[in-house]
Amino acid sequence: MGRISVYLPPELEKQLRLKTVERLGGKKGDLTRAVEEAIRIWIAKKE
């Protein structure tokens, strides 16, 4: 499994974390799942 380090503007990070808790509950690993989902959707739209 790869590891990618990215910078998000503070407001975008806050929005991501809040939406992740709303949708997935805030359990350990939920932020990773949310980012994976976002990347998969972005890739699918670009194909």
Give a structural overview.
The chain contains 2 helices and no strands. The protein is mostly helical and 47 residues long. It has one domain (10-46). It is globular and about 30 Å long. The chain has helices spanning 10-24, 30-46. The mean pLDDT is 94. Helix content is 68%, strand content 0%.
Q: Outline of this structure?
A:
The chain is mainly α. The protein has helices at 10-24, 30-46.
Helix content: 55-70%
Q: What is the count of helical runs? A: 2
Strand content: under 5%
Counted up, domains total 1
Structural class, by secondary structure, is mainly alpha
Q: Which whole number gives the mean pLDDT? A: 94
How many extended strands?
0
Poorly predicted tracts of residues:
none
Profile the largest sheet: none
Judging from the principal axes of the Cα atoms, what is the shape? globular
